[in-house]
Amino acid sequence: MALLTKAPRGTMDTLPSESYRLRHIENALSETAGCFGFREIRTPVFEHTELFMRGVGETTDVVQKEMYTFNDNGNRSISLRPEGTAGCVRAFLEHGLFNEPLPQKYFYLTSCYRYEKPQAGRLREFHQFGVESLGTGSPAADAEIISLARQIFDFFELNDISLEINSIGCPECRKNYHAALINYFNSKKDELCETCLSRLERNPMRILDCKSPVCSAIAEGAPVVLDFLCEECDTHFKNVRKHLDAMDIEYTVNPQIVRGLDYYTKTVFEFVSTSIGAQGTVCGGGRYDGLIKELGGNALPACGFGMGIERLIMLIDAQRKSLPEEQRIQLYIAPATPEYSFEAMRIINDLRYEGISALTDLGERSLKAQMKYANKKNVMFTLVLGEDEIKSHKASVKNMDTGEITEISLDTFTEDFMHVSINAALGGIGMGSLQDFTLINGGKQ
Ligand code: ATP
Ligand code: MG
């Protein structure tokens, strides 16, 4: 029975008391992305497992340990998406979007699924805001997505988020680097953890990403990838930095960053904060010039990032940044007895067509119970509808904040109520106009 009323471990509900904050954040993210020319893409929550094995990489922790994989009734191996890039690239190829003007720039707000040990900032279902710039190898594209992430943090006035960048080169420079790494780690073989031992031959760079204190201490003395970059990768990285300098975006070069997914080449970066504990990486991304070809397309370069929404919210909360208040319900109409509920419903139905939020009783409750409910809901105005009001075609609207009462006609109720509402918002000064109402009511008339 307990299973019925308990959500699976590592998942979270967003209740109405929180969802308006989330919506505000999501709007800010998509509007900022829009300013940079990124357009929204939505892809399925599940894909063929093969896509992630190829795209994310078979040797990664994500694919080896963290994926939700199952056979569907048609006996196909299906996985819930652990990240957003592979699905985007699959859609880009499937719909021939490489024939459109390049780069194609997409953003997404999606849920992701990873079977990880749940803790603060680490969930099994989490959400990502991500961008992908497909079909450009220019260092300006790397700098552009970094500047987009920076603008988002600035929009929420967040501080203590540092940008760390690195270049992990192309497969050519990595050949020599891998050899140097294997050589180095071989000399420390006895101290490495078991997982890292298995990484040694297959994917030695992954050892640099190991969270165990012993391995990370060893990793500190490892050869640095930047010393192995070929000329092209070196110039690319210099130009990314030049762009960041030109935009006054601060960063530190951290040669330890390798990222957890296999598809990265050249630039990799993370935005890290110390305000939210151990899970301090809020955003991670980089260039993945080999992925589109790996997934069956032409060799087209690309870059992108993923930002954890839950971690972003943790930062906003940790730094006590305020978000807008939830909009209040404007009017509650209380039928004095159930027979007036028909007229009450008619009036609020008209109001709602005009974008005015309004409620009435849905439970044949007493007037007293209704008023208690309206108070708890923190509505701005209330109105009681009874025999007198229906006979006289007039009703008294009460401002619940000031106690002020205004009598308005039931025949022209919607328009009259708009004026009362504007006046209240303007602090009772002058007669409000419908234009003011549009402003106050968020553009909805
Ligand atoms: P971490 O090092 O924290 O495990 P990662 O390298 O696995 O992160 P990415 O795959 O690059 O992360 O995902 C991008 C972003 O998504 C991360 O920077 C983080 O903000 C967020 N994220 C990743 N995994 C989780 C998770 N399990 N729960 C919540 N957010 C997550
Ligand atoms: Mg991870």
Give a brief description.
It is built from 16 helices and 16 strands.
SSE diagram, text form:
Elements: H1 16-35, E1 39-40, E2 46-48, H2 49-55, H3 61-66, E3 69-71, E4 77-80, H4 85-94, E5 104-113, E6 125-134, H5 139-155, E7 161-167, H6 171-186, H7 194-202, H8 213-220, H9 231-246, E8 252-253, E9 265-273, E10 281-287, H10 291-294, E11 302-308, H11 309-318, E12 331-335, H12 341-353, E13 358-360, H13 367-376, E14 381-385, H14 387-392, E15 394-399, E16 405-409, H15 413-425, H16 434-440
Parallel strand pairs: 1-5, 7-8, 12-13, 12-14
Antiparallel strand pairs: 2-4, 3-4, 5-6, 6-11, 7-9, 9-10, 10-11, 14-15, 15-16
Helix pairs in contact: 1-5, 5-9, 15-16
The structure holds adenosine-5'-triphosphate and magnesium ion.
